[in-house]
Fold these 3 entries.
Entry 1:
Amino acid sequence: MAPPATEGSRFWDQLLQLIEEGRAVPIVGPDLLVSEVEGRQVQLYSFLAERLAAYLEVAGEDLPPTGALHAVACRFLAGGGQIEDIYSGLKQVFPNAATFPVPTPLKQLAAIRPFRLFVSTTLDPFLQQALDEVRFGGQPRTRVYAYAPQAVEDLDQAVDAMERPAVFQLFGRLSAVPEYVVTEEDTLELVHALQSETRRPHRLFDELDRHQLLLLGGGFPDWLARFFLRTSRRERLWLVRGRTDVVADARMRDDPALVSFLKHFSARTRIASLDAVRFVDELHRRWMERHPPQAAPAPKEAAAPAPRPGAGSPLEMLPGAVFLSYASEDRAIVAALKDELESAGVDVWFDRNALEGGDDYEKKIRRNIECCSLFVPILTPHTVTSRRRFFRLEWDWADRVAVQAPPQLRFILPLVAGDVAPDDPALPDRFRRLHWERIQPEGPNPAAVELLKRAYRDYQRAVSERS
């Protein structure tokens, strides 16, 4: 079968227009994870496979160009290895930014600002890092969702309502536990979970159904490509009208059976002649010609680091945000924690100025506590005091709100940094009865972030069920 025709100017003009109108969502795969390492272009998954093979002490030679991690896993398991060691091993061998820089294709996609939602089919944090670097000067502002069949996470809002870009890692996110895709068996489990009503991220797939998809370098085998295209649409493929998905993927392009299937049953799917890296490079070049940086208006999302998105003044808070209560001496601890939480997709509010006084000020702070999803007091030696401090008023207000909170939802979740005794008489009785989570002042604090994120999601689900 002849390869797809080369894209002409009309194709690019139509695609750019769709992007300008906010009607396209990129699906980003491993073929775009190419970076220069020791003077040569290296694909991340091949790089990881070699490192993992060395770590697990299995043969790393003659690995296939696609599915290299799966091949290493199979060799390790065939030798009697335990599957859990594969995931913890990947965590150990994952490169830092100095070893494997953020791939250029991801930065090029990040520079196309109408893209608000990105769906990643890889396990790494590079897409998030690219967005933070290009759009926010390195500040962690990108919202990240990570799917796992046993802990379903979904979008909080529609794409059109997003103030910040979001990355949805559909195949999971790198961690020491096996909740992300490495092997073909992991892929099979993911596909099985996505067919379940209770384990499917419905809001995500609603958004995919509403948008044109750009499938960029997923490297899907035939069966998975068909499944993904079908599951992202409500209707049968041949019934879909008015949308043209674009595939830039060398493996899919060179699969005659898949090309024939799409030609007959998904005629609106356009398979590009360029591979993913060259396609993104050309898309970026044409976008920048059409939207030169010096001529583009300053984007709202890059107006850093000022008020929280949606806030008209420093005291205004998004309803349902997490309220961080702290002593002014601990502002650096709280600011770092806020960045971690926002990177995990949690809306956070804290008083940056710690202004202590004024009736109007007190009313606004009290209203924020009444409207927050979680009240998180940061307990440090600075807060264990009998002196009259404003944060103690916040504690009192939160205690009153907690009495009225639904019993199945946690409202007050204390975090402790430093030497604070659970039975210290300077602490409120309610705080002493609650479970505490300890944090490191300098961070990172993945356990605390995960605890707060789950409680935040529980609150959102409860609100959604009531509405």
Entry 2:
Amino acid sequence: MSFSNYSAKITTLFLVIGLLPLLGVSYFLYSEEIGILQNSLEFTLTTHSENTSSLISKWITERGNTIIGIASNKIHVSKTNVLLNSDSSDEVYRANFELQTQSSIYLNNNPWLIEYVVSDSNGKILFFTGSTTPKENLSTQDHFISALQGKLGISDISKSPDVIKNEYGFYDLFVPTMWISYPIMGEVGIHGVLSARVNVFSIPHWDGMISDYHSLDVYLVNSNGYFISKPKFFDFDDGTIKRPELNGFITDPESNKFTQIFNLIIMTNKLNYLMIMLTMLEKV
């Protein structure tokens, strides 16, 4: 009986000694496989993010060039000078008429262009293409100040206090919007500033959601951490789901607590007013 117990103990000991290296090797191989999968997934998501970010950056640059062309148009330059300096109501009327005629051409040829306004250097609006003047005080915003310095100014994407069309084509408040401003140069100095409202729903990535298994969705987020794009998984009920303009949160792997996404991501100068994030379909 004692021999049997001894034999069982010896057998168990040998099994344990034999299994430990096997378990160690298995764990090592498993960890290596997980690491490879994580690196591969991270590379794929980063590549998608960089490509989409570059596409949007190029799109915004092209829009900026168009605004430069509009602001540099001889009609805008000469008629802005009239609006600034003329005391004749007839001259002011004709200047407004010519600007309206010119603006209809630009608005028809550029569907992404919602409206634009011409202001003097103090922010007083001299001409506007919309039904009403914007509620925003453009003169205090960075894009307007950049234009007064002779540069192209591009705003962050933020919620509009004006009623404009949302992503469904309906007029609504607090719709994401963006402004691009450029100086209207006179013979001597800056006569005024042309500020154009851009339809952010025309940004290319809205139609380019990633459909492979690597990612669940693509989000466009402004520099304050507000979602600009609408997540793909809300598409089944567009009529009732509101736009998720909330701070983005994820779980910090070290503390296992929720933290703001922008605490974990270093923004680059490449696109300092927008950021693309991709979320993993599942944790590896």
Entry 3:
Amino acid sequence: MVNISRSLMLSLLLGISPLSQASDQGRGLVTMNGQIQESACSIHTDDIWQEIPFGVISYSDLNQEGKAVIKPFAVRLVNCSLERIRGGLWQSVNITFSGETEIFRPDIFKVNGEAQGLG
């Protein structure tokens, strides 16, 4: 009788074990990480990529170190919120211009086309 009870208990335990494991099937754990950035404005879609034509410029105008032809352009900001999520108002704006630079002068932008000696 004791042997039957032990056999019965062992059979029940072995039979229940796969059922308990089956109840966890289809479940899992997903861990995500990332960064939420706070931005005060967006750039108007027409201003994201701009090409600013300079036309024909004389060499003497370009040869003045530190001086160049001034060509105004605009970057329109839209959907601006002056209030920060953490309170207070935005105090400054940072704008970064990026592009391909000259190999031997990484402080100036590379010029597309046949022109040389300027950036």
